[in-house]
Amino acid sequence: MGEKEAGQARFPEPTRKGEIILRLSEFEFPPMQDVLLTGRKAPIGPEAVRRMVEALSPEQYEIIRLEHPLFDAVVLKKSLLKLLPREKLLPIILEEGERVATENTIVKVHVSVVIHVSRAVEL
């Protein structure tokens, strides 16, 4: 068997890559997107956001209290956490949110997660 044929007999491990696209904009009604960042001095605090979320979309969002200089809470759509672990998603959202927000703002974030999977199959 030639060198080329031997190389085709083995298949490499599948590769997985994730792509994250964030859209950040000012808070407006209807208020919910995929993520909501609440500033420390925003007109609506985490408790009011919790009541609003439960009224509009019961059990679809998770509210995470933060120890952060600008934000005191982030509201994440639970379905996003099925696609990407919180440990990977939250730092990206906070980093980008810091670029556009102040402690007085509420920022809604549209998140689009695309998972790329590549596998080799034997023909």
Structure description:
By secondary structure, the protein is of the alpha+beta class. It has one domain (14-118). Helices cover 30% and strands 34% of the residues. It has a 5-stranded antiparallel sheet, with helices on both faces. It starts with a helix and ends in a 5-residue tail after the last strand.
In short:
This protein is α+β, with helices and mostly antiparallel strands. It has one domain. The protein has four helices and five strands, in the order H-E-E-H-E-E-H-H-E.
Strand residue percentage: 25-35%
Query: Percent range for helical residues?
Result: 25-40%
H/E element sequence: HEEHEEHHE
N-C termini distance: 18 Å
> How big is the Rg?
20 Å
The number of distinct β-strands equals 5
Unreliably modeled segments: none
Please tell me the total number of domains.
Answer: 1
User: Structural class of the secondary structure composition?
Assistant: alpha+beta
Largest sheet: 5 strands, antiparallel
Adjacency order of strands in the biggest sheet: 1-5-2-4-3
Tell me the overall shape: elongated
Number of helical runs? 4
Mean pLDDT level? 86
